[in-house]
Specification:
Layout lengths: L1 E4 L4 H12 L5 E5 L19 E4 L3 H6 L8 E4 L11 H22 L2 E5 L27 H15 L7 E5 L1 E3 L12 H12 L2 E4 L12 E2 L1 E3 H12 L6 E5 L5 E2 H11 L6 E4 L3 H4 L11 H5 L9 H13 L16
Parallel strand pairs: 1-2, 1-4, 2-3, 4-5, 5-6, 6-11, 7-10, 8-13
Antiparallel strand pairs: 9-12
Helix pairs in contact: 1-6, 3-4, 5-7, 7-10
Length: 333
């Protein structure tokens, strides 16, 4: 039995798809679906799993031993909003909840793969190395990143990372993110801006060493993320913290251009001032160091930005959208 917390969310539901694709259906989904208007339940439609458990009930069921035969927990459930202001909620939801899951896995020899975040790296002044020795040197820029760092540090101190794998996701994009509101990827936002106005808005640069739109991120397609997690399920000896990116930094201008190209349109990009509230917390460059994952044995090629954006736009976002000029309509996988 495999459990996916946050299984109706973006990466969680993509992982459910990955496991189904590999013939696995003995899976329990743990999540909150919220309102029907958010449509998060649609992320589960057409996918196969054995049961669904409400998020608030799950820790008690674990502690009472009510769930048997758990071989692995893929812990993706968290509040991932980088602008969340309720620090106590983030501590409880992202730190306390994770500790309960980790304690169960260690006591019952169950595989644990959990979501950390590249937000733990802060402004990047200490680099983007996933070496465990550097965990205490990181200074996240927001409470979300700090809640993730707290758990990484706790897991290291209590020996959890000797058996578990914590994944520091960089800028993930792909299907099933529509419910994330302001936290959706720039691809998702760019697609809808093109449909509504014919242009894409990107932030101006407020640093002389970066041109407008040339701020850099490590963008990774969600299917590459699930490929890594599926591989780790088969490799219980692989443990520790690992970056999940491509190892290549690309600009927001590149990403917007790829979105226009996927729609068969010429780029029209407008640069707008960055809100002053974000300027002190804004990262101009992120890029995952991937040597550790490769050394552990993962050697699949990552999807290029252009290929990933094209598939996401044409096969999902524009599958029934009039802004796709080439007329090819593809159903959801």
């Amino acid at each position: 039995m495999v459990i996916i917390t946050g299984g109706a969310g973006f990466i969680g539901s993509a992982m459910l798809w990955e496991l189904n694709r590999n013939g696995e259906e003995n899976i329990i989904i743990v999540d909150d679906l919220g309102s029907t208007t958010t449509g998060q339940w649609r992320n589960l439609s057409g996918l196969r799993f054995a049961d669904f458990i409400a998020k608030n009930l799950f820790p008690d069921l674990l502690e009472r031993g009510a769930l048997e035969g758990i071989s692995a927990i893929i812990h993706m459930g968290a509040n991932s909003s980088t602008t969340e202001t309720d620090a106590d909620h983030l501590l409880s939801n992202n730190f306390g909840y994770s500790k309960k899951i980790a304690a169960y896995c260690m006591a019952h020899d169950a595989r644990l793969i959990y979501a950390s975040s590249a937000a733990t790296y802060g402004d990047g002044q200490n680099g983007y190395s996933d070496n465990i020795d550097g965990v205490d040197t990181l200074r996240p820029l927001n409470m979300y990143g700090y809640s993730k760092q707290l758990f990484d540090r706790w897991a290291l101190k209590h020996g959890v990372l000797d058996k578990a794998s914590g994944l520091k996701f960089f800028n993930v994009y792909g299907p099933n993110e529509y419910h994330k509101d302001d936290m959706t990827s720039v691809v998702f936002k760019a697609f809808h801006q093109i449909g509504e106005k014919g242009t894409v808005q990107l932030f101006q640069s407020h640093r002389p060493d970066y041109l407008d739109g040339e701020q850099l991120r490590d963008f990774i397609y969600v299917r590459d993320c699930t490929s890594i997690m599926a591989w780790m399920l088969e490799k219980p000896e692989v443990s520790g913290l690992f970056n999940v990116g491509t190892g290549t930094a690309r600009s927001f201008k590149d990403l917007a251009t790829a979105t226009f190209s996927a729609l068969g349109r010429q780029p029209e990009i407008n640069y707008i001032p960055m809100p002053e509230t974000l300027r002190d917390k804004y990262q101009y460059y992120t890029c995952a160091e991937m040597a550790k994952l490769h050394s552990a044995g993962y050697n699949k090629t990552f999807t290029s930005l252009e290929k990933g954006v094209k598939e996401y736009v044409q096969h999902y976002l524009a599958a029934s959208n009039p802004y796709l000029d080439n007329g090819k309509k593809t159903s959801h996988a």
